[in-house]
Every structure is written in C-alpha cells, then in structure tokens.
C-alpha cells in the first residue's frame, strides 16, 4: 500500500490483529526483509512494515533533508495518526534500529516498547561523526559512479557481514537480490541523510528513555555486542539478548531463534502491562 506522509509517498503493508508492531529494515533492505516472520508474528500482533526513504517502493527524493532522521520521525508520527494508532511496539534492524530509537526518544508517548537488533544510538563525538560522514559520502559516490552491482559486491564482502558466508547459497542470493532491487539514487541519498555520521547522538540521553528497550545482538558481531552492553548499562529498562553463532543480521542468520525471541519479548511485555 502507498500512503502520502507530509508530501512524500511511502510504501507499507499491514497484516494481523492485536497490538501494533512497527518494523524498520536496515540499509539496502526493505519491508520485505520481514516477510519470513509475518505468518508467526501476525498471529499475535498487527504487523506493519514500511520502506524507509530511498528504499523499496518508497520515494527517493532529491532533497537530502527529506532523508534526515528527524524529518522521517515526523513522517512516521503522521503515519501513526493516519492509522489511528495511539501506541505501538517498534522493532528495527541496524539503520532501522537507529531510526526506531530516535523515534522513541522524540515521541516516547507513542511507544510501548523498542526492540533494537544490532543497532547503536549514533556516535559519541563530533570527530567520529565527521569521519563517518566522510566515509558515507565515499560510499554514496561509489554507488553513483560505479553502479549498484559493483557496490553490492563490495557491501556483501565487508567484515560486518562475513558470518553470512556460512548461510546457504539460496539465502545469500535472496539477500543479494533485495539489495540489487534498490534505487541507487535512493541508497546514496540515504547514506547522506540518514547515515550514522549525521543522525542525532542519543548516548547522553539514554537514561531518559523510560520505555522497555530490548537489544538483540549476535555473538560474532563484537562491535555491536559491545555497543549493546554499553547501552543496556545506561537504559532504565534495558535488557539484552545475545544469540550464539550469529553475526550482525541475526534475523537472517538465526531466523527461528530471532522470530521466537521477538514474540516472547512482546508477549511477556503484554502480560506485564
């Protein structure tokens, strides 16, 4: 389905009954990232998945500001109003997790709980943000100048995704196809507008987030495992789950375990509320 949010067309789907669960994919992903889980999750929840700007079937505008997390947060706030949703659970992977956390920080009253898979609250220092912004600009230029196929070949071979080499050829091919189906212009602008270097840093305000926040990381993804531990220490209602023999994309590498953990977290949350 297509919905216009503050002048931009977003693509989404909605399935099931029960409390809403709003899903945000990672960079080079789409709402289809979550399709393997829909049958199970929709038995308990109203599952909503949306394509973030520059991804899937959502628009890929020219204006970089249109991709900025603060502006997309306003779009999703409008989205919830249009769907008459007062409160929702949020689940985000990587870039989508950074976005979910940002939404929860800005509109905590709209959020029941947050599940963050392999995500961060941004970068701590101005120097780190500047360096990351420069790195993302190089990647954006690579997409524009060398093309999507070359970029995807590079992206699937970065250290962050090495553990995915153990997956079946079929699953690896599926991930590759989702990446290759993207709009190159949208991906480049997403890096410029929603990259870690330009997003707000929430590190110093995590103690303000008085919402149940669940962090899921893979044992093999040491960087985000350490980030997760540091986040949990700051969050008033934080809890962390580490999945053995999984890397950055836990939902791909340990699909059944990930799907069950999400349901267990949210059903426990429902009992406690």
UniProtKB/TrEMBL annotation:
GO terms for molecular function: 2-succinyl-6-hydroxy-2,4-cyclohexadiene-1-carboxylate synthase activity. Pathway: Quinol/quinone metabolism; menaquinone biosynthesis; Quinol/quinone metabolism; 1,4-dihydroxy-2-naphthoate biosynthesis; 1,4-dihydroxy-2-naphthoate from chorismate: step 3/7. Monomer. Its EC number is 4.2.99.20. Catalyzes a proton abstraction reaction that results in 2,5-elimination of pyruvate from 2-succinyl-5-enolpyruvyl-6-hydroxy-3-cyclohexene-1-carboxylate (SEPHCHC) and the formation of 2-succinyl-6-hydroxy-2,4-cyclohexadiene-1-carboxylate (SHCHC). Transmembrane segments: none annotated. This is Putative 2-succinyl-6-hydroxy-2,4-cyclohexadiene-1-carboxylate synthase. Belongs to the AB hydrolase superfamily. MenH family. It comes from the Bacteria. Residues 20-254 form the AB hydrolase-1 domain. Pfam families: Abhydrolase_1 (PF00561). HAMAP family: MenH. It catalyses: 5-enolpyruvoyl-6-hydroxy-2-succinyl-cyclohex-3-ene-1-carboxylate = (1R,6R)-6-hydroxy-2-succinyl-cyclohexa-2,4-diene-1-carboxylate + pyruvate. Keywords: Lyase, Menaquinone biosynthesis. It is an enzyme of class 4 (lyase). NCBIfam families: menH_SHCHC (TIGR03695). It comes from Pallidibacillus thermolactis.
């Amino acid at each position: 389905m297509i919905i216009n949010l503050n002048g931009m067309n977003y693509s989404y789907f909605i399935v099931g009954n029960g409390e809403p669960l709003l899903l945000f994919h990672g960079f080079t992903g789409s709402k289809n990232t979550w399709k393997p889980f829909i049958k199970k999750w929709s038995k308990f929840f109203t599952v909503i998945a949306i394509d973030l700007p520059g991804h899937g079937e959502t628009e890929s505008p020219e204006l970089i500001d249109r991709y900025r997390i603060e502006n997309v947060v306003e779009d999703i706030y409008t989205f919830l109003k249009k769907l008459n949703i007062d409160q929702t659970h949020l689940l985000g992977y990587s870039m989508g997790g950074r976005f979910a956390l940002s939404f929860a920080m800005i509109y905590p009253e709209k959020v029941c709980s947050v599940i963050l898979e392999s995500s961060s609250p941004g970068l701590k220092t101005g120097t780190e943000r500047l360096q990351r912004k420069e790195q993302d600009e190089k990647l954006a230029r690579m997409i524009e100048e060398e093309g999507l196929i070359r970029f995807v070949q590079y992206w699937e071979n970065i250290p962050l995704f090495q553990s995915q080499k153990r997956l079946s050829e079929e699953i690896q091919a599926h991930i590759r196809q989702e990446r290759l189906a993207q709009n190159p212009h949208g991906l480049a602008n997403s890096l410029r507008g929603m990259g870690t270097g330009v997003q707000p840093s929430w590190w110093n305000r995590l103690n303000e987030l008085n919402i149940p926040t669940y962090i899921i990381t893979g044992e093999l993804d040491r960087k985000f495992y350490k980030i997760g531990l540091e986040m949990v220490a700051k969050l008033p209602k934080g809890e962390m789950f580490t999945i053995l023999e999984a890397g950055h994309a836990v939902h791909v590498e340990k699909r059944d375990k990930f799907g069950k953990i999400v349901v267990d977290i949210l059903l426990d949350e429902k009992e406690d509320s």
